[in-house]
Amino acid sequence: MPLLEPRPTPSARMRLLSPLIAIGLTLAVGSLLFLALGKNPVEAFTVFFIQPLSSGNGWSELMVKAGPLILIAQGLAIGFRARIYNIGAEGQLIVGALAGGGVAIALDGVDAWWVLPLMVVAGAIGGALWGAVPALLKTRFNAEETLTTLMLTYIASFTLSYMVNGPWRDPEGMNFPQSIMFGDPALFSPWFEGMRVNASILIAAVASIAFWIFTSRSFLAYQLTVGGLAPAAARYAGFSAQRTVWVSLVLSGLTAGIAGVGEVAGPVGQLNLNISPGYGFAAIIVAYLGRLNAVGIVLAGLLMALLYLGGEAAQVALQLPAAITGLFQGMLLFFLLGADVFVDYRLKPRPKPAYA
Amino acid sequence: MLEHLIPVLAGTLGAATPLIFAGLGELVAERTGVINLGVEGMMLIGAIAGFAAAADSGGGALAGLPAGAVAGMLAALVFAVLSLSMAANQAACGLALTIFGVGLSAFIGQHYVSFSLPGLQPLDIPGLVDIPVLGRILFHQDPVTYLGLITFAIVWWVLRKTRLGLVLKAVGEAPDAAHAIGYPVIAIRYGATLFGGAMAGIAGAYLSTVYTPLWVQNMVAGRGWIAIALVVFATWNPTRLLLGAWLFGGVTILHAQGLGIALPVQFLAALPYLATVVVLVLISRDKRLLQLNLPASLGKPWMP
Lengths: 356, 304
Description:
Chain A is mainly alpha-helical.
């Protein structure tokens, strides 16, 4: 006896409520988890969500983490609307970082204003090319993009490991797998003394506005969305499925690539093995939590950034492993998918007793 | 030359074992129409559960493998409730399971970082191990590797020769028809999904308690995804899956053994992933072959 029945039309209210329900459920289960670990939930949530925002530096760190998450998620959302599942943004981020970082290393010592813009362009191209590979494999050979984008992520991370262990290793780096520290012309300079927030956040802001205009105003974005919702209708209308694949993967690769440059030319300041704490994967959750909508993604990105900060704070203050962030991320996505079911379905009312 | 090749070929069988378990589990689930992209997550959960059970009970791999199976099954249950009972998008739920598994295993694993386990001694099959060359390759393996081959034989037999196999395939090909003649489609899909979870859990526990008996964060390292790719490569056929797993086991072992090839270690480590892309391309380019073998209802939510 199924408990659910399809709604006549999807519920618009539920679409907006669902992320809030998911967040609420995650917090509820999180409290139970804290209790089970012998921590006071109120104290834990203070550490997780309030303390990080109680200082100027905390807000700066929030921006530093939200920037790449929002930027990547905006690109991914275009593809997700078209049901193209690029789950390899992490790899595209790495290749973008390699391309941008390569420029920085090659131009080390050149003191010119154009070094940083050139790095950003190189990163964008690198990420876009890494996204173009699965697009080619999908359009030409019909290979599933979920698997190819992910495999390419592993290949990207081994390439990074090779470069920082080999050709690009800092000769004075005591054999650590890392490149030289980039010079000032190759770095986004911090806005405030002692804080890490910098102009790369503007890229995420501009991208958010651009994607908002693109998705709400352009015919191409409309075609992509129709292709995802009703492939047969899209074919009938003559919208190209191939172009959908290319646009989705190249665009999301491009934003991830730029995010990669933002990391190596920002908080990291060099190429090493820790250039991303899984931003490419977390951005998938950000895109869904933000309802694949440019404004929603900004809010979801800020929340996810707070989750990262909270995890770091909990490690220091509560001696909890930082991996708790990943646990919360997974729970959040689970609850979101569960709550989303009620966009299209509703609980079946109990059958009324029949009159004799 | 032969002296060098024997350990490589013998190692191939061990390296293939997690892929055989996880791949067979996913294959059975997909034959009933359920695509679970959470294999990587279920393997990680199985790996840490198996490791924890093996380390805490002192029972070693014998305690670890069943614990891994149960943990993998519980993880699959979460996926099944969402995607089967509530008809949520299977691809997204699988992805969520993987993200969750990465987080959960890292979280629990913090306690076990510096532990190591005794592992399992190879089990010589009396008589057969003395066959020149082949004996040392095939019959000097750890017991779980034999178990993997037995599991393969059972899955092959069930799918090929039994009524149960027929029902599983019918549910995947035509859930409406199977429902109409009275088979409980959702219950059968639950069963297949949980079987897939148990197999992935065993695969993970094998990695953490037998193959490299210590806990390393993210130690499954993409094998779950490779197992999913192998199912496509095998066109949903268990025999081809076994061959594919051996092929990938061989590619993996090239890395471990090095073979004295003067290539960067990262290149050899990347080979299995590169090979996955290549075989996916080779198999997918023939759209008709794929369409002919693809379970017709794969990935489509179904409600009675």
